[in-house]
Design brief:
nine-stranded mixed β-sheet; seven-stranded mixed β-sheet; alpha/beta; disordered N terminus; 741 residues; Alpha-Beta Plaits
Length: 741
């Protein structure tokens, strides 16, 4: 009996809340956060092939191995920096950002030259920004209170205590900070991988707020004074210009999440990158020596140059999302590029992510919870792949940062519950199926029922099957000569043999009715060749009964002669029947009903009238031959009208399997067929002669075959003799009307 449908959501409403709640808690741990950053790195690396080139206004200048080996070793005299800055100003550079610490005073005269070079560059419209860093220790010099043109940011709202900062700062040497801007390069690393992902845009020095190197560069490039900058912690830094206002998102700590897109080398998308020496000499040849016909130096007009160190042994380098070892001036270059292109990371709200995850979890339970384990596993894989694809697609197309690890953990936990629950249900269902059908069908068929994934349709449905009825000839006499315990022993042996054979051929035991065995072929699992299987099973049962007769005979006086001569009659019919659980609400049986079932029973009982032990209808013969070819040998017995029906039914004896039928029997079948033709032609003498000849070749002959009292040749011989004396009327068509069931 099929179970009423129960909405799984009413049972598992808590599962998404629990799984995603625990996943959210785990996403707050450092381990999961670090893994989330790593997945963002993978998305960033994947995105490289789909993104536009960097803003051409940002270039990198690196003090590289070529400079170290062929010009000057690190650290160079500051005169080199001064010369480079002046030459870049001659080329029209807008901002020169020195991601280099120049804090200590030197006595080689380079400090004064550096100041002079920066002053000359700024007179030509090139702003210079140099690096500073926070410090818990006070650094004193003769001009420690002089901070030059750099000014703190005054318009700041929010909790300043959350800002990264210290009481003091390490600033550029006095001559340099007197004429240049400086910005802070503090860059805490996120997690154990050492990658700078969220550097501060503003830092706190004592009670004052100063811009980072990147922000100070942008302020110089856009012409925004410190007093015009608005800082809203947890919201953004606002840079108002004549054309527009730039909004740079920051968190409550004043940190900015870099949308890292470009490398310096060895990547599909890189910033224009120049060597320190090559650029210095190229600009000097063009703008000072004015040498004609030389390679044109880089175009620096109106650009920002981020200058840093990247030489072997002295590199300011580390890992980035795009490389394991990259120059860290890329951090500032990517921030500047983000702001100029207004290309920011857009983290998707956690409320939306986790809320959507819970809703989708409920929807998934409603739609998928009743599916098979295989379907659930496939759905789990597709769901995870879909979430991963969505997170990659969002990052590539719109810099949407969709959390990946936490939701996948929650989804995986939810699928574990759903699949585990469904696996338990399927296991319980398999046990129920085995309990329901294990006593009626073969283990192989039970396995097919289980593997089908859905229970058979119980409660009544129409299905084409082959019905099988068998009954022992003269069974009532057995109980007269055998004591009850011996009768039980005999029936157990006989019924076991019959049941095992029909189940081996795919039959389903319907019931035992005393000595009768009722079987259906083709239900509860549909079998395309059910008629063929039923015919083969009938002959295997008959052959096995012959073996049992030989066994009982060999056991001597243990069994009376009636047992040693036991015969069973089998009737088959193929057609559409009602299959399902029949009975009361409290007690029922999986069985078959319908006119075609009754006709199969008539084949079994009618076999006695024709002297055969396996009889079937025309429908069974046609289906068997279509499904199994000519392996099963049939003999037409004519057309009969069974008791309770008005229409004539062609009937056939199942003679045996082709490999078991002897040559004599085949010759007898040919004679019998010829006799049947004479019979229909009312040639009573010709028919009688042929039936007499075929009777000698019958497989079952009275007094020769145990238990046999007649056969088709003898039956038709008697009918022909009767018709010869009392011919049928002129409307006779050869139909024989059975008077008994």
């Amino acid at each position: 009996m099929s179970r009423p449908f129960r909405n799984p959501l009413t049972q598992l409403w808590w599962a998404p809340l629990l799984c995603y709640g625990l996943a959210w808690l785990s996403s707050q741990t450092d381990t999961v956060k670090q893994f989330e950053w790593r997945t963002l790195d993978w998305r960033t690396q994947f995105r490289v092939g789909f993104q536009p080139p960097p803003d051409p206004r940002v270039v990198l200048v690196l003090f590289d191995d070529d400079t170290e080996n062929n010009l000057v070793s690190w650290p160079p005299s500051r005169q080199y920096h001064a010369n480079l800055i002046e030459l870049m100003s001659l080329a029209g550079l807008k901002v020169a950002t020195m991601d280099v610490f120049m804090t200590a005073l030197r006595e080689d005269g380079g400090d004064a030259l550096m100041r002079a070079g920066v002053t000359a560059a700024q007179d030509r419209g090139t702003w210079v920004v140099t690096g500073a860093v926070t410090s818990e220790f006070e650094v004193l010099d003769e001009e420690s209170k002089e901070r030059g043109p750099t000014r703190p940011l005054r318009d700041v709202q929010g909790d300043l205590k959350q800002l990264l900062g210290e009481k003091h700062a390490v600033l550029p040497f006095p001559d340099l900070r007197a004429v240049s801007f400086y910005g802070f390069v503090d860059a805490p690393k996120e997690g154990a991988d050492g990658i700078v992902r969220q550097p501060p845009l503003v830092v706190r020095i004592g009670d004052e707020v100063y811009p980072s190197l990147s922000l100070q560069t942008l302020m110089a490039y856009l012409g925004v004074a410190a007093d015009a900058v608005r800082v809203r912690l947890g919201d953004a830094v606002y840079l108002p210009t004549k054309a527009k206002e730039f909004r740079i998102p920051i968190d409550a700590r004043g940190c900015y999440l870099i949308n890292f897109r470009y490398e310096a080398i060895n990547a599909a998308a890189v910033f224009p990158t120049y060597g320190y020496r090559a650029l210095l000499l190229g600009l000097h040849s063009k703008h000072v020596e004015k040498i004609p016909d030389i390679p044109e130096p880089p175009d620096l007009l109106g650009r920002i140059a981020v200058i840093g160190l990247f030489s072997t042994g002295n590199a300011d380098a580390g890992p980035t999302p795009l490389g394991a070892y990259s120059p860290l001036p890329l951090v500032h270059a990517n921030i500047i590029n983000n702001v100029l292109a207004e290309d920011y990371v857009h983290p998707v709200s956690e409320r939306w992510v986790w809320g959507l995850a819970v809703v989708l979890g409920w929807a998934g339970i409603l739609v998928m919870a009743h599916r098979s384990v295989t379907m659930l596993c496939a759905g789990a894989v597709l769901g995870m792949a879909g979430w991963v694809a969505a997170s990659f697609w969002g990052w590539v197309t719109a810099s949407l940062w969709v959390p990946l690890v936490g939701p996948l953990l929650g989804f995986g936990a939810l699928q574990f519950i759903l699949i585990g629950r469904r696996a338990m249900e399927e296991h319980r269902g398999r046990q129920e199926l085995k309990g329901m059908f294990g006593a009626y069908v073969s283990p192989q068929l039970v396995d097919r029922l289980v593997k089908a994934g859905t229970p058979p349709q119980l409660g009544g449905h129409v299905q084409e099957i082959t019905a099988y009825f068998s009954d022992i000839q003269g069974f009532s006499s057995f109980s007269e000569v055998l004591p009850p315990e011996r009768l039980v022993e005999l029936m157990n042996e006989y019924l076991t043999a019959c049941t095992d054979l029909v189940q081996e051929d795919g039959g389903t035991l319907d019931k035992y009715i005393g000595d009768a065995v009722v079987v259906m072929f083709g239900a509860p699992i549909t079998l395309k060749d059910h008629a063929y299987r039923a015919c083969v099973a009938s002959q295997r049962v008959q052959r096995r009964l012959g073996e049992l007769r030989a066994k009982w005979k060999a056991e001597g006086e243990k069994w009376p002669p009636i047992v040693r001569a036991m015969q069973t009659r089998i009737g088959l019919n193929t057609g559409s029947c009602v299959i399902g659980n029949m009975g009361s609400r409290t007690r029922f049986n999986y069985t078959m009903m319908g006119d075609d079932v009754n006709l199969a029973a008539r084949m079994e009982s009618g076999a006695k009238s024709w002297g055969v032990y396996s009889m079937c209808t025309e429908a069974t013969r046609l289906a068997c031959e279509q499904q199994g070819g000519d392996r099963v040998v049939f003999r037409p017995l004519g057309r009969i009208v069974v008791k309770g029906r008005a229409q004539a039914v062609p009937i056939h004896e199942i003679v045996g399997l082709k490999e078991w039928v002897s040559a004599d029997t085949r010759a007898g079948l040919e004679l019998f067929g010829a006799g049947l033709e004479r019979y229909y032609a009312r040639d009573w003498d010709g028919a009688a002669q042929l039936f007499h000849r075929s009777a000698a070749l019958e497989a079952n002959i009275p007094e020769q075959t145990p238990g046999v009292t007649s056969n088709p040749s003898l039956v038709y011989g008697e009918i022909v003799a009767r018709y010869k004396n009392q011919p049928p009327d002129d409307n006779w068509t050869g139909v024989y009307v059975m008077k008994e069931k």
